Structure formats: C-alpha cells, structure tokens
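2024-03-11 09:14:02 DEBUG pipeline.ingest accepted 1 chain
2024-03-11 09:14:02 DEBUG pipeline.ingest length=456
2024-03-11 09:14:03 DEBUG pipeline.predict start
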Amino acid sequence: MALWAVGLALLCLLAWWCWGHKAALGRLTGGRRQQRQPGPAGEGHGDGVTFAEERGTPVGDCWLICKPSALAQALLKSFCRSAELEAKRWSWKSWPNLQTVMQLLWPPGHPLEFARDHLQLADKGLVALDWVVGPSDRGRKATDAAESLVLLVVPNATGRITRNIQQLCRQALQQGYYPVIFNRRGHNGCPLTSPKLQPFGDPADLKEAVAYIRFRHPTSTLFAVSEGSGSGLLLSYLGECGSSSYLGGATCISPLLKVQDWFEIGIPWLYEWSLLLFQKRSISRYAKALKEVVEMDRVLESRSLQAFEEALFCHHKSQGSSWVAYWDANEPLRDVDEVAVPVLCLCSADDPIRGAPDATLPWELFQSNPFLFLLLSPHGGHCGFLGRESDSWGNAVILEYLRTLVEFFRGEKRMKERPHCGMTTAHHRCRRGTPQSREALLPTSNPFSWQRSYTH
C-alpha cells in the first residue's frame, strides 16, 4: 500500500510538469522532423527502402540512426513491418514524466517467480542471478527454444527491478527465452560479504556472471538487455571484452551515454532527490561494513548524485582517486570501438532523465560504428514507451530485434557454409575458425561456488 501511495502522490505532483512539457516537447520534436527529411538513398539498399542523408531513416513514428550495412537493412525491413512503431495517438502519449514515473513506481500486474543463484566471485564477494521460472503461461513456446536462447537482464544502477523489466521477462519467457536478472553486490537481497561495491562502469563482476551462465548453458545463444543507467555496465562489458563477450547481441533501453556530463550537469530536482534518497536508504544498511573503507558520513550527507558517487568511489580511506580518474576508468563508451556484437539503443527524444537528445546522444558514433544502432522515438520518457494497455511497446520491439538478429546470422552462416564448407575436411576447417570455438576455452570443471534458493 505504501508503494501505491507514493506512486499516486508523485503522479499528482508531476501532473502540472507533464502538461507544461507537452507543448515544449511538441515544438522540439516537430522541428526535428522538419530537419530530418529523408535524403538520397544510400548505397547498397534495395526494395525501395532508403537511408536519410543526414541522421537516419523514418520507421513509423521513430527514426533509425545507424551506418548502412546488410544488418541495418534487415533491421529496417523488420521494423517497418512492426505495428508497434506505427504512429499512434492517445492522450498521455506525450507526457514523458507520467510514463517515466509509472514504469519506475507502478507495481506489475503479475509478479515473477525466480530461482536464485548466489555466485561467489574471486574476491569472495557475492552477486545474485535470478532465473525467471514463472509464471508459466500456456502460450509459452517449446522448451527446445528456451534451452537455446538465454536473455541476461541488467537493471539500472540502483538495482531496482522495475515494472518494465518484469514485463520484458514475462514476454521473453512466453516467446521461449530463459531470462536471468543480474543483481550486483548488495542489491535486491544479495548479501554484501566484502566491503566493496561495484563502480558505475566496472564490468569485472558481470564478466564472472557471464562466464558462469556460459558454463551452465554452453550451447545456448546469449543475449543481453539493460535498462537506464545499467546500460553503462553492459556497454563497458561489451567494449572491454570485444569479440570475447560471448553475446550474440544486446539492447540498451534509455541508456545514459555521456555519463560524466550527466552527473555534472544534473537532472530535474525531483528525479535527483528521489534517486538520491533511494540510494542512501539502500547503502545505509551496509554503513557499518563499509565504514572501514569509505567515509560514510560524507556519503549519507551528500546532496547530489555527483557528490554521492564521488564520496562512495573516489574518497576511499586506503586509496582514493580523483573524479576525472574515476571516469577515465568507468566511462561506458571508453572502449566502444572494441564492441563486436550488434547493440540497439532504444531512446526517446523527450527523456526527462537523460536530457535533450542533441546534447546527450553521440550521433556520430551511431553513424560510423556498424555495431551500434539507435532507434529514437519522439515520445516515451525514460524507460517508459507505454502503449494503450499501459504496457511498454518497447519490449515488443526489443524481442523483434533479437528475433531479427537470430534469423540474420543464421542466414549469414548458411551462405558462408554453402560455397566453402561442402567437403568434410573443409567443413572441419571452417568450424575451427568460427567464433563458436570459444566454447573450447570454457573450464571443464565447476570453478564456481553457488547456492540456489526458490522465491515466489
């Protein structure tokens, strides 16, 4: 009941703000549409589908910004067939704050059922992997599909399992995926067994979690989805691991891409106050354990998200670092040129937490990197993208994107094997050189310490 009361109070408080932003954002997106009319067709595109000369290609009510390629063309065709991206009109579609608050605070209709693994890391710390095992709907596809597709979900940096994540996991479960949620140290009931928290863009814990998932499902295709500030961790992992990430593709929902600027410039006071209060409440339960390494008084007395992050990770008692040095090591895009799997970033132009797209989205990165795709919607808020039934249409787009990746790479594999791998010896030679040979590097014995518990 308390959660409902808080949600209703914030909705009432934000109503006037939503209405005030509606007209301004309408002018913003309207002007952007006039500036992004499709230009001459790019090279190598058929079926009458063209890429815009400047920034992107219209897809329904959205824009796809990417470097022209065969995969980009396949995604464009798939998105053009998607009814979710068609222009729709309903009264609260252009209220970004309302969409944001509903997805972050409104309770889900049907809670998920989890089987939890506690994974002990190299430094004796713990992270938790919540495997989604229910509810088991009748519409779920055959089990062989579930065994071949694993969906790793990375929540935002606060660790909150939002309404949107629960809806995505339920839809993925129905379509034959085996979803698993990654919980950082100290998040969502995962014990903090060592005086250490995970910095914003440090993928060390995620690396061990992915290795464990690969150990448990060595023949499965692994995809990843991140939400909000959690995209910083996923992008850091993809950049640092490169072609050894073991992922077949990834999606970032409303990612924060220029994170240092985001901390320094700040966000609307109501969101900053809410996020800061939530993080202080979460960290206070570990105050006694962290007091050995962190100045907890400074952490709990911080009055901004930047001050909180700086006090928690830059002012260690044994070994401190500067704010600039911290972001040199944790900026999500620091190794983005090494990303070697397709990544779709689903963003909205009216995101009140990320900020204006012209200042917060690196357009040139999506135009030059063949692995990065930006799908920009004029409306949706932060991780909102709500449709008529108050469910996120973005989840359907994400699952359609992953389905397109599976079909595209299966087709590419068939084309490569047909002319070059007809003979047995040649086939053996081709298989030995493919990325799938990375499975041979997996450990043959179980190096992980883990426990399982069932929760409902």
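2024-03-11 09:14:41 DEBUG pipeline.report Residues 2-35 form the longest helix (34 residues).
2024-03-11 09:14:41 DEBUG pipeline.predict end
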